[in-house]
Write a structure and sequence with these properties.
The structure is a homodimer. Chain A is an alpha/beta fold. The first copy, chain A, has 3 domains: about 5-180, MoaB/Mog-like domain (Molybdenum Cofactor Biosythetic Enzyme, Chain A); about 185-260, Alpha-Beta Plaits (2-Layer Sandwich); about 265-420, CinA-like (Maf protein, Alpha-Beta Complex), CATH 3.90.950.20. Chain A is about 40% helix and about 25% strand. Chain A contains 16 helices and 17 strands. In chain A, strands 2-1-3-8-7-6 form a 6-stranded mixed sheet, with helices on both faces. The longest helix of chain A has 22 residues, at about 400-420. The interface between A and B is large, with 86 and 88 residues.
């Protein structure tokens, strides 16, 4: 069995100055080759801390990836801690890396300082992963482990994300050479519009019926709904896809349109695909979501193929002037109403000459709302050039969360309409 | 001495499916009250793992914050591990939380499942932090520690960021009550539009002139610019504000309009304030940013006081039909041009009858662009009802980054125009 630990070194992460994105990138890469990340640890630039933690991790996991703590300044003592940990006595200067360090200095018109030069010298016990993106090389150590796997493969990488990303494939290559890699198979099913507890109840028997070697995980996400991940490890993972496909089929019989996609697809990705297939265009009229839905679609490369654009009619004037929402509707039913949503969808459809359009009007909070229309109330409208359809619901989050929820629900409503359409 | 550990539980982070943003938020909050985070750990939903790690952390640190692993489904076993760790024998149902769980079910028109009901029951050894944002409550335990501080304060919080953020202040309150906290004073200065190295050079002498007990930290952020944080720890922190204020004054003499605010203010917060003071309104015309700027403003509670709304004119048709951009402009100069930006700003101003308006038109990529207008090119327009002003620049990120950068630059341009106006 291969199991890994990821250790980030440095204060920036511990004081919350930066969010650690390296660990997730590394974990995904290891996962793909069937090396399971069992733990992630962040520790400070402290010699004893580094040695204690890496010793503990090497005794428990046969792969350890370390990032950070390799800068030229004196608060970076990772390298010497690694030297001690690996039982190395001395440093050697790595010619390839030194040339790169020289080149960096040259380009910046700086003379080569000893501090810079030191970056190219490494414990003689390590294999160097030459780093052309920065001055600090990656290092590959084999560390004695008290565990029955005898030795742990430890990689030290720079903390700068694009330097780490450059070296990561080299790490994967070394692992492929050094390890007897166990197979792994993942299938992720994206669901929406069904609360975790209801989902769990709905698929209870299906879940109990899963063979022991197929692992199920619930991965909830407020915006994308709940992801169900099926995983198979080891020999069983070879040729398990037929079995998995059947399980997924019977799952989709249970969940129907609650399943909107697979792997890391999003609701807007699916709508984008549906519209491209149909060769149709979309326009959007937003009130309380204030452009959130438009921005979710425009984040997709090639969005212009399907998106004409839209209107953020935050004020009632704009609802009237731009979207031709009638005075009487606003007076009689208010801006948060089925009628207003319908007229907004129709209005943006007309000015944009799109094939389909959606609209959202609601109360995001924290203020506003009434007993009959509390904060979190929303109406979503859809118009296909002929007929209107609407739905409403109530979200129970704060302002930001309500806006996100309204947006996701609107996109999902659009998706369902397009499927039926 | 108070030292803390943050532990996140759950596979989503370990397999790299989500990036852990909670830990950095928690660390910043603890930092503000002078509790130093010494380590962060991510572990899987495994009973033994949870107990071993939390035991180890409680023996070493007197504050331990745990997030995640509290969902209703069967892969969450954190709560019972905490029960065992705290030496509790039994569960009690927490009335306040149960009422919230009931309310959630009611609002969603669902019957209350046992799975939901279980969320409200907690080990009898804990103090409940009622969670109105979700169904799982926060829990506060006092765990025996082999360390000389005797017991460790352990808080368990939901992993959903906005639920965690809601409970975090309650955690801070408990820590303030339970711990003898060292004094601490922070002042954060928000800057925009000045690269870190240039900034560092500009304030070099000012920085050298700081008394030893005032610590300075650079906190860069792609969207909000570079934050400068001044910190004073210990007895000196009492009554140091006059001294700090003077230092900040001399700093603002050096940086002028590069300083846009203090503490955790954002560019849009400052624009919101400026417009409210003036009692003026805003409208926005977006092309490549696709609603991002509108959504940043509508995320602010009370946005309707200053925002009329806007148009996302993604297609040239909409630029013409809605914003009255002239054919000749599009033909002669193209959509990404000073002229188009000016007409878009004017156009949205007219239809929305706002006092001020801004427009953004550019190429976010990955496709499109030319030698003379590469991907990342953008024009930003401003109109005050009388005169237009525009600026352009080139961003060098990927699509998402470019959209964020365009948006931040546009809002900052608006801010500078409002200051001069």
């Amino acid at each position: 069995m291969n199991s890994a630990a990821i250790c980030t070194i440095g204060d920036e992460i511990l004081i919350g100055q930066i969010v650690d994105t390296n660990s997730s990138a590394i974990s995904q890469a290891l996962n793909r080759i069937g090396v399971k990340v069992e733990t992630m640890v962040s520790i400070k630039d402290d010699r004893a801390e580094i040695i204690d933690n890496l010793r503990r991790l090497c005794d428990k996991y046969n792969v350890v990836i370390v990032t950070g703590g390799l800068g030229p300044t004196r608060d970076d003592i990772t390298k010497d801690a690694l030297r001690e940990l690996s039982g190395s006595k001395s440093y050697i200067e790595n010619e390839a890396q030194l040339e790169i360090v020289r080149e960096f200095a040259r380009r910046r018109g700086m003379e080569l300082l000893d501090l810079n030069r030191l970056q190219a010298s490494v414990p003689d016990s390590c294999t160097v992963l030459t780093n052309i993106k920065g001055t600090a090389p990656g290092m590959f150590f084999k560390i004695k482990s008290s565990n029955d796997f005898g030795e742990s493969l430890l990689f030290s990488l720079p903390g700068v994300p694009y330097e780490m990303e450059y070296l990561l494939p080299k790490v994967i290559n070394h692992l492929n050479e050094s390890l007897k890699l166990e197979g792994i198979f993942h299938k992720t099913i994206m669901t929406f519009g069904i609360p975790e507890s209801v989902l769990a109840k709905k698929i209870e028997h299906w879940e109990l019926d899963l063979p022991e070697y197929i692992k199920l995980a619930y991965l909830p996400n407020p915006l994308t709904g709940i992801r169900l991940r099926l995983s198979v490890y080891g020999d069983k993972s070879v040729g398990c896809n037929k079995e998995i496909d059947e399980r997924v089929r019977s799952l989709s019989d249970l969940l129907g349109e609650h399943i909107y996609g697979y792997e890391e697809s999003t609701l807007q990705d699916e709508v984008f695909k549906l519209l491209k297939e149909k060769g149709k265009t979309l326009s959007i009229a937003e009130s309380c979501t204030g452009g959130k839905i438009l921005s979710l679609f425009t984040a997709i490369p090639g969005a212009s193929d399907i998106l004409k654009g839209g209107v953020v009619a935050y004020s009632n004037e704009l609802k009237k002037d731009l979207l031709s929402v009638s005075d009487s509707t606003l007076v009689k039913y208010g801006a948060v109403s089925r009628e207003c949503a319908a007229e907004m969808a129709k209005g943006v459809h007309e000015i944009s000459k799109s094939d389909f359009s959606i609209s959202v009007t609601g109360i995001a909070g924290p203020d506003g709302g009434s007993d009959e229309k509390p904060v979190g109330s929303v109406w979503i409208g859809f118009y296909d050039g002929v007929t209107n359809s609407e739905r409403n619901f109530i979200s129970t989050g704060d302002r930001i969360r309500n806006i996100e929820r309204f947006s996701a629900e609107a996109i999902n409503f659009l998706r369902l309409q397009l499927i039926d359409n």
